[in-house]
Amino acid sequence: MTKPIQKKLSNPYCFLYRSLAIIKKGMNELKIGLTTITLFTFLIIGFLSNYILLLLGLFLALSTLIVLLIVKSKKGLDFMLFLILIVGIVFAFHSGLIIRNSFQKVCFISDLKNRTENKFNIKPIDLNQIEHDILQNADCFNLVTLTTIESGDSIVNLNILKSIDTCRNKPKILIIAGVHGSEPSGVYAIKEIIHKIKVENLLQFFNIQIIYALNPIGLAMYNRNNECNCDINRDYIQFKTMQSKLIKKLCYLNKYNYVLDLHEGPYNGHYFINNTSLKGLESRLTSKLKENNIIISPLLQNGIRNFLFKYQLDSPTTRLNKIMPLDNYLNSIGIENILSESNPLSNNMEHRILGHVITFDCLINSLNK
Ligand SMILES: [Zn+2]
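Above: the input record for the complex with zinc ion. Below: its predicted structure, written as tokens.
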């Protein structure tokens, strides 16, 4: 009885056949394993929006594709895995984004915290002082109070400066500063911008309106959010905040050609998003910033990183979570705009302010060309 088995095992062809069968089975498991790991990695990439992880994910996806193409097994299995890989990567990445965005909120239930003692040791804006400084040079503007905001014991005006001469044919520009209370450089930049407008007599050519402190209570408390603890710049779908409603109404009534929104981003460098069709604006702005020794954000030097950062708030998944920043809202209603984000990690407040002034200057120069 034992003789035939011994014969079978000692047969080298049979041994090879069996080994190949094991390797083949192993290869199928490797393909399924690689596909699963790639999909899981893209889920994490969507959640963390991490650049290094994205490079790893792309490498994994490529390796899986190569294995699927080179190591042929049953056609059905390969084709199915190929489909799962391609569709799954897109699906997994967006699922990660949905989970990430579900942590973002427009409004918080708790009261607004006073963060005047912050780790950056930045004093919150003295609104009365800055308003006084701004208005000193603003004699070519009308000061209009849009509304008043009550918070605790204080009542603050939310003002807009409007060009006195509002000839219809001039390009209409709205400048917004102080959306986030922990980003004061935009408000300080308004003083410089108004000085520039006056010295260069820009109101001859442009109709300019300026909201120099959209979020006065947040600015006074050095807190990102507004008096109701809501993030104004995430609220352009639900319009829960008085400020986003106001901007919507102003855009509807004034039909601006351009909006310039001044912020401070969490990057070591000046960042901007140009949503205008103005030719040469981006390259002019980049070289002007460099000329003035202002560090450019690393995001702007790296296309993939920039894509990841922007896509978090640009993708359709963000709309599912009812989150939308102003630039995307303006894009949706056809108003060209620039987002200027100065470097909050720089100790040099003058540089932070200058970044915004240069952005304004480049917008004006691009319009004059
Ligand atoms: Zn901001």
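Notes for the reader.
The pocket of zinc ion is lined by residues 179-180, 183, 233, 263 (CB under 6 Å).
Strands lie at 141-151, 154-163, 172-176, 207-211, 258-264, 271-275, 336-342.
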